[in-house]
Amino acid sequence: MPGFGTGRACMDSQIGDIPRERLTAPLRRGAVKKPVAAIHVSGKLTLLQRKLSNVLLLNAYDTLTSQPRHQIDARTLCLMIGYNSNDMETLKASLRGLAEAVAEWDMPDAGGQKEWGVSALLAYARLKGGVCEYAYSPALAEKLHDPRVFALINLNIQRRFTSGHALALYENCYRFVRRGSTGWWTPDLFRRLMGVADSPYYDEFKHLNARIIKPAVAGVNKTSNIVVTPELRKMGRVVTEIRFRIAENPQLSILDPDDGEGHRNTEVYARLRALGVSDRLARQWIAEHGEPHLRHKLDYVAEEGGESEPGVSPRDPKAPLSPRAQRLERIQALAAARTPTQRDADRRMFLARLSGPRHDDFERHGWMSALNAEAIAAFWEEVSPGAFDGTEGL
Questions:
Q1: What span, in angstroms and rounded, lies between the C-alpha atoms of 143 and 150?
Q2: Which tens digits make up the pLDDT trace of 114-139?
Q3: If you classify domain 9-252 with CATH, what class do you get?
Q4: Which of 55, 221, 232, 354 has the fewest other C-beta atoms within 10 Å?
Q5: Which among 52, 32, 17 is positioned nearest to 173, based on CA atoms?
Q6: Which residues fall within 8 angstroms of residue 21, CB to CB, at 6 or more apart?
Q7: Considering the entire predicted model, what is its pTM?
Q8: Which residues pair with 266 in a beta bridge?
Q9: Tens of pLDDT along 46-82?
Q10: Is 313 buried (19+), middle (13-18) or exposed (0-12) by CB count in 10 A?
Q11: For helices 279-289 and 291-304, what crossing angle results, to 10°?
Q12: Distance between CA atoms of 96 and 90, rounded to whole angstroms?
């Protein structure tokens, strides 16, 4: 959810401050009088919970204020976030974290009157019949849907982050790219944005700088389409305020949002829509991973659940798998058996070995990367010796 996260905030994001070409079609509107908006979320969210909140918002966005409830296939949602598609307990824990987080805003309304409000980040969530249903409070839904307050985070950018603090910093800086600066924040506010306000260790600025600011800045600059530089104000030796200078990162401009209109004519798009995935989210997910990779994922979910999507024929369970398919299934099973924290570490460790086209192909296709097939198999053999014993032709 853009501008949200572990204590993350949405600041005075003004639609006129965001380059028009960066906005998805529904956000390309005429100039309006923009309010100064501030929404803070209390609660310590993990990187995966932060990504989940963004995916849920993206899925609900087009009907955010017109429908009280939103739905998506639970197994598909797990795969989108990086969970094992059977890992309902982790999904439950993540949804619980979003429902327990509190959003608070203090801003002028459309008429210029000051408005204060508070709401749970998710009004409710439930899993039933293989479907995840969830809702936002009406007041919060209005704020989330207002392009003067939020700019949606593109999944192609989000998926590259391996640090929750880096993603939080990116979300809170991205909307200021045209202004070139976030404006000045107090250390207390910054600690809230990073989700460390309840840790006395970070009351001392040198610890905050070493463990939070420097790694988060490095993550944003390496991963995203912007470059941020921290600046400090001091009274004597005490830091009283911090802001971030922001510039576009031309090296990673390819990560900018794409409407993906052409994806609507594909089989994968139709299958995702049949699973309750919204038009916007389906197009972004296809753009992020590509059709072949998602077709494999959807086949896996359909077989795993013992049923297929409407109008899709499942693979004949008696049909023999090719050696390559056997290896892919074994790799997928190995990755799915890891905890979310281990999966993040595995991905970072493997990416560190890659460069050039191989790095880019893995970023796009993950463990299904054909360009890195041999290296991926060798990696998992290191992680789990004997992992491929008994697999044909490997």
A1: 8
A2: 888 889 999 999 999 889 999 999 99
A3: mainly alpha
A4: 232
A5: 17
A6: 256
A7: 0.59
A8: none
A9: 888 888 988 999 899 889 989 999 999 998 898 888 7
A10: exposed
A11: 110
A12: 10
